[in-house]
Amino acid sequence: MEQQATAPRPLPAPVDVEQAEAALIEHYPRLVRLGYLVLPPSLGRNRRVLTAHALVQRALPRNRVAADEQAGLPVPAPRGPDGSPADPGYAYVRLRVLRSALEAGRPRGRWQLPRPGQLPPLLPQVWGLRLFPRSGGADELALDQALASLSGPGRAAYVLRALELPADRDVRQVLAAAGVEDPGAAVLEADGLRTPAGSRDASLLESMEFDPCSLQARPTDLMRRRQHTRAALAAVAAAAVCGILVGLPGDGWGPDGAAAPPYAENAAAQQALDPAKLTKAAPDAWKTADRPGFASWPARGNRLGDRELLRRALAVWARPGRSVQVTATPGTPSGPAAGPPQLLYAGEVGQAAVVLLHDGLRVVRYAESKDGDTGAAALDFARTDAADAGTATAVVVGRADNNVRYLTAPWVDEVSVRDLLKPGDAPLPLHLDADGVTGPALGPAPGNDCHGWPALQMGGRLVTDLGELTPALLTTGSPTAPRDVDTDRARAGWAHTACHLQSMRGQGVRSVNAWPFATQQLPGGAGTAEWTCTRAETWRGAGSRALALFQAPGARPAAPGSVVARAESTPACGVRDPHVLAGVLWKAASGTWYALAAAGGGEVRSITATGGVHGTAAGDRLAVPARAGAQAELSARLADGKRISTLR
Q: Where does the pLDDT of residue 162 fall: very low under 50, low under 70, confident under 90, or very high at 90 and above?
């Protein structure tokens, strides 16, 4: 219920710099939290943190503020001992922070200067680091997604009412003073927000999830930075060579022979630069395609008719300038298209205008500022040949800090987020707009931090972000018959495997299969251990990775399995060679050490250990006493006489 005033409130006393500064210093965390929550979520968590701090620090007045400049902003009554401070200095600084945060979310023309309190689009920055609040639980994530669905004024109304002001009248009054055209509509919008049960009080908004003063620091994407460095060095070298050629007399080092002039009169090359020649799949092509993939995706987005945007995307693809950030997954050529590519998407995602193109071999993402500023354009390449319905589920259209937005396949009609380390938790729904673009989803944290591993559930399929343009498909089961991760048992198995996906980031991974190839009764009745082979396969067909994991009984549900063997560029544990052998030294509760081994893939007749351990066992499991630190050589014999060795 809205509080009723019993008497007119007096206007606040004049505010000077010292008074405002004292209020800012005393209530700095409160003001930064307010700015962080009101700033547009499209900035990403890292930019929101830095911008919130900057807005608060820029909120001081330059000189004494007269009372008539504060007209319409009486100091609201405090909520209690821990409520909003009844201090004119605080009220003034809070208004400045709120006004600047709302200004940051309003569109600005291409040639307009930043408004007062609004920072240039590239500032502030902390080079090499990402700063973001500590992650909360499912309720905090749900509330964050709900707040992202509100307009700036609606979000401000919700936050002011929850953290600052008890009465809707006070909320409307502060919003009006901050420049909101219709404060009443903003309050009604906040009323209609569907939030988790835990957010009915201020406890969720006061949690660490929304505390920009208690931060985690992580490096930026190291693989992407290294790729940018290599691309920059290559561009410098190419420019030097071109400069030498231009300086040479006559025909440079020699005539071009049959080669055409640069960007020459080649019909295919000319068509590849013409937006009118872009191909588009029929809206229902995916329903009749023999192999639904990117080639059957229809063109979507709200800027499909923007020929200037499409022309810039094609021109930058053909000859990216020095300011363009170019990245490519391993084994993906970054040259121009051989002919007119297919248009998948052209639209606005957050603060960027994005174009997605496909040439049969690659998906290409071009991004620039949505106001047409190409000073920070980006061009990303990902190899996607032979994509099918399982591996062509989504493409990244926006990445801000650790939040990712995807364009989903036309056959995907709902998306939810799962934490692989919490297999028993229900998935959280993720908003999907009419074009198939998802709301922002938290991606796996880079580095070694593995307190959670988000994955997207798309129908029966499960995919995860590995820092590239296309997410990796997650499967389970034998290499010859992998299946979707759609059962409780399969999800429980992936909980022990998920953290090892860190080693597969930036490798051009197409799919990752986790295959529980054996269970083994441990000596002395110690329980049952599980052996898993995790194999990552790439789009380029080379560079696969296989890990053999051992999981002792009694481990907590999300405990990572122990890596006991690994191999790269191996056919083992795959379709071509569905066999695997691995071993480990294990200490029983009695103090006795054992050499354990298990093989998978069928038709295993025996396993033999030599070297520091000697023993042979019939079948596909081995357990023999050993010394601590013993080194054993393992081999297994198949029914046809062939021998296999451990992954290495």
A: confident
Pick 9 or 388 by higher pLDDT: 388
Which residue intervals of 199-350 are DSSP H helices?
Answer: 222-247, 267-272, 285-288, 307-318
Alpha carbon distance 166, 82 (integer Å):
13
Going through 436-500 in order, the beta strands assigned E by DSSP cover 441-442, 454-458, 461-464, 472-476, 483-484
User: CA-to-CA distance for 529 and 6, rounded, in angstroms?
Assistant: 72
What is the C-alpha to C-alpha distance for residues 353 and 369, in angstroms, rounded to an integer? Answer: 6
Element (H, E) at 49: helix 45-57
**CA nearest to 494, candidates 477, 518, 519:** 477
- Summarize the confidence of residues 280-291 as an average pLDDT: 93
- Mean pLDDT, residues 245-259 taken together: 42
- How many whole angstroms separate alpha carbon 100 and alpha carbon 56? 9
pLDDT over threshold 60, residue 241: no
Average pLDDT over residues 312-333: 91
Q: Residue 203, exposed/middle/buried by CB under 10 A (0-12, 13-18, 19+)? A: exposed
Dihedral (Cα; 419, 423, 425, 427), 10-degree rounding: 50
Q: How far is it, in rounded angstroms, from Cα 591 to Cα 442? A: 44
pTM value > 0.70: no
- Tokens for 328? 């490519």
> Taking 50 as the threshold, does the pLDDT of residue 370 lie above it?
yes
- What's the pLDDT at 419? 95
Region 234-253 average pLDDT: 50
Vertex 228, ends 222 and 234: CA angle to 5°? 140
Percent above pLDDT 70 for the chain: 79
384 neighbors 361 (Cβ within 8 angstroms): yes
Give the chain's radius of gyration (CA, Å): 30
Phi, psi of 157 (to 5 degrees): -60, -45
Helix axes 88-104, 168-177, angle to 10 degrees: 70
- Please tell me what DSSP assigns to residue 149: T
Backbone angles phi, psi at 505, to 5 degrees: -65, 145
Nearest one of 150, 172, 176, 148 to 160, comparing CA atoms: 172
The bridge status of strand 472-476 relative to strand 509-521 is parallel
Q: Could you tell me if 348 and 302 are in contact, meaning their C-beta atoms sit under 8 angstroms apart?
A: yes
For tokens 């009604």, name the residue.
188
236's CB contacts (< 8 A; 6+ apart) are none
Cα angle at 634 between 631 and 639, to 5 degrees? 170
Residue 63: predicted pLDDT: 57
Helix axes 88-104, 28-38, angle to 10 degrees: 30
- Buried b / exposed e over 568-583, threshold 16 CB at 10 Å, is eebebbbeeebbbbbb
At 398, the pLDDT band (50, 70, 90 cuts) reads very high
pLDDT digits (tens, 9 = 90+) for 124-140: 556 666 675 766 666 77
Dihedrals phi, psi of 272, to nearest 5 degrees: -65, -15
Cα atoms in the 13 Å half-sphere on the side-chain side of 522: 23
Q: 595 near 624, Cβ under 8 Å? A: yes
Percent of the chain predicted with pLDDT > 90? 51
